[in-house]
Amino acid sequence: MSRSDQSRDPVFEPANRGEVSSDHPTDEPRDGFERVEHEGEEFSRGAGGETHQTAGGERPVLTTQQGVPIADDQNTLRAGARGPGLLEDFHFREKLFHFDHERIPERVVHARGYGAHGYFETTEDLSDLTRAHLFQEVGRRTPAFVRFSTVAGNKGSPDLARDVRGFAVKLYTEEGNWDLVGNNIPVFFIQDAMKFPDLVHAAKAEPDRGFPQAQTAHDNFWDFISLMPESIHMMMWAMSDRAIPRSFRFMEGFGVHTFRLVNAEGESHFVKFHWKPKQGMQSVVWDEAVKINGADPDFHRRDLWESIQKGDYPEWELGLQVFDDEFADAFEFDVLDPTKLIPEEVLPVRRVGRLVLDRMVDNFFAETEQVAFCTQNVVPGIDFTDDPLLQGRNFSYLDTQLKRLGGPNFTHIPINAPKSPMHLFQQDGHMAMKNPVGRANYEPNSWSGQEAGPRECPHTGYTSFPQRVEGEKRRLRAESFRDHYSQARQFYRSQTPVEQRHMRDALVFELSKVETPAIRRRVVGHLLHVDEGLAEAVADGLGLDDLPAAPTPAAEPRDLEVSDALSILKNTGGTFAGRKVGVLVSDGADIGTLDALRAALDEEGASMAIVAPKIGGIEASDGSWIEADEQVEGGPSVLFDAVAIVTTEEGAAALASMPAARGFLSDALAHFKFIGWVEEAEPLFQRVGAEIGGDDGQIAVGGDDGAGSFVEACRSLRFWDREP
Ligand code: HDE
């Protein structure tokens, strides 16, 4: 046989031709295709009308983007089996062309994110305050899409980076889309949008070396912070446990800026938006965050995915702080200054609705990646204020979408399109999919009926609040924005001692990564204005010989009332619902104890995962087989909110010889977790140098009440008394 004949050799026949793959996830034809019967054979009919015979009538035929059926997806078209590829191979060319263009620019900030669908339900009629359609009636539901994110890291960065979290909500109201593009921290680093590029450059990887990734623990960030006193308040939040949330479900969200609500009479009130997690608040400890990033860099994604998959839908209440000019004038800070908050004790948060996330996306790229949030997306009844950061954002977001999504028609992508009717004369551009129908593409026009197209409506259309504006055209920072330390001090002093320790440790950790001693000293100088005790403790942690001088403040810091709402540990919710216990087991583990644990956790709305030496599982005390959810190497205790050790003595001894099992227990102890135990587990405790039941955070889970007592203790989330 000559070489040119090889293609006829069966060995070189295209693989799988005409075969049906049995692992195709669904029998359903692709979206937009209907299945039809034709002369006894099944066909899948494309939207364009052409028909393709399915392989064996079971699966849709693979096609090109043009809908042309493909016979061979395994081999390029060649001149002879060992010959050169041919230019006319349109299928190969199209496949590679498309693959080569799969990436779009990642977001310049908030690149790493995870989204879910849900709805917002109004629980209080707000028609006296705003004409926004979604707030007009109790029980009204508005579809919502939420994207959570970190800020500094690239798309592939780990979830547990110490960072601010984005909390961006798109509400598809009947009068258009309202985007509330917030964070999990109620204040921002800077007061003027002019400084945003500098802030982000300083926070992200340093430009000469391209690292560190998703870290503020480096010179550039702290250099910038130390030279920008207005950032000190938010810096304190970023050094608190707010920046290492347990997961998206356990964090608050904030609109940050002061906005306006405008009612049908045209009256305006100021408003600050809050999202309050029904699940309570919870964070991890730093050492845990570091380890989670290795054990499961997608920890937050997985958490949201799993909770929605199992029907445990995360929920937040929408809270409003509503106030008028009189309050704004009397309040001790400028309500337009985004580095300041209004304490809840000064102005209570009114709960007016709930946000429920109940559906994951069908496709991550199409929805979560392509979703385009814009602060300027507001609806009638919601308006802006002159907060200089908000004004700058209104400019920036549209701009960034053009770059990221490649054209002005990104609103045609389903995730961005309003669910209310759109009638406009805008047309054409890249990827236009919704051009106006008919003759008129301008206005005014003298056509009539359908031909005439839409017209503006002064009654129902969006009208801006007619706020008076005056002043000289200058580049100025308002005098009323001068106090940079008082609220930072208030934040620190509102924390529990445990949280204050964590902030001190975070500062020492971050500043110890800063190579330039002068930058470390400058930061400690600022801390003297926040709290002297804190400054001294950080100086000590850094090994400074003396305390640096405090910089001269623009405004002398004041002592403000402590605000309990600012602490996480004062607002954990007192429930263990939605949390997960990792139960380390061995062969022969007592089935009664395991069953009781599972029942008690079920009742609480929590779950449990079996962690075993082998993923295949174990044989329990009654001879039944229990499958493992994690093999101990891949299921370290950092992935769980609490743990239990349910083994035989022999099993515990075997586990004691495994570093991962020892780490499971010693980390749980070091991270202040509640630990359930059975006596037989003692050899493992001994091996890690711990006394079994040695503190009140360790609870015997055997016996009649063991499981119940364990779950009850877990409601406190962590046993902080173990902390030295
Ligand atoms: Fe953003 N921000 N931002 N930001 N921001 C973006 O828009 C910007 C700010 C926030 O999940 C970008 O689509 C400027 C404050 C979230 O898709 C960009 C300023 C707050 C998200 C942008 C700020 C936020 C973004 C990057 C200072 C909290 C992710 C990609 C004036 C209230 C949204 C994009 C998502 C994203 C600009 C400050 C929250 C470049 C100029 C303050 C949650 O447009």
User: Strand content of the residues, in percent?
Assistant: 15-25%
CATH architecture level-2 label of the largest domain: Beta Barrel
The gross shape turns out to be globular
Number of domains: 3
CATH class of the largest domain: Mainly Beta
Give me the CATH superfamily of the largest domain: Catalase core domain
The CATH topology annotation of the largest domain reads as: Catalase HpII,  Chain A, domain 1
Whole-Å distance between the termini?
A: 81 Å
List each distinct ligand once.
Answer: CIS-heme D hydroxychlorin gamma-spirolactone 17R, 18S
Number of helices: 18
Regions with little confidence, pLDDT below 50 for 5+ residues: 1-52
DSSP strand tally: 21
Describe the structure.
With 724 residues, the chain is of the alpha+beta class. It has 3 domains: 1-104 and 418-469, no CATH class; 113-209 and 244-406, Beta Barrel (Catalase HpII,  Chain A, domain 1); 580-722, Rossmann fold (3-Layer(aba) Sandwich), CATH 3.40.50.880. 25% of the residues lie in helices and 16% in strands. It has helices at residues 90-100, 196-203, 219-227, 232-238, 286-295, 299-309, 325-330, 364-369, 388-405, 486-493, 497-512, 517-530, 532-542, 591-604, 649-656, 659-670, 682-687, 706-714; strands at residues 34-38, 41-45, 51-53, 113-122, 141-150, 165-173, 176-183, 253-254, 259-262, 268-277, 315-323, 350-360, 382-383, 580-585, 607-612, 618-619, 625-626, 630-631, 642-646, 675-677, 698-700. The strands form 4 sheets. Strands 4, 5, 6, 7, 8, 9, 10, 11, 12 and 13 form a 10-stranded antiparallel beta sheet that branches. Strands 18-15-14-19-20-21 form a 6-stranded parallel beta sheet, with helices on both faces. Strand 20, helix 17 (682-687) and strand 21 (698-700) form a beta-alpha-beta unit. Helix 4 (232-238) runs parallel beside helix 10. The radius of gyration is 30 Å and the shape is globular. It starts with 33 loop residues before the first strand and ends in a 10-residue tail after the last helix. CIS-heme D hydroxychlorin gamma-spirolactone 17R, 18S is lined by residues 107-110, 113, 147, 149, 166, 168, 181-183, 188, 193, 196, 256, 338, 371, 373, 389, 392-393, 396-397, 400.
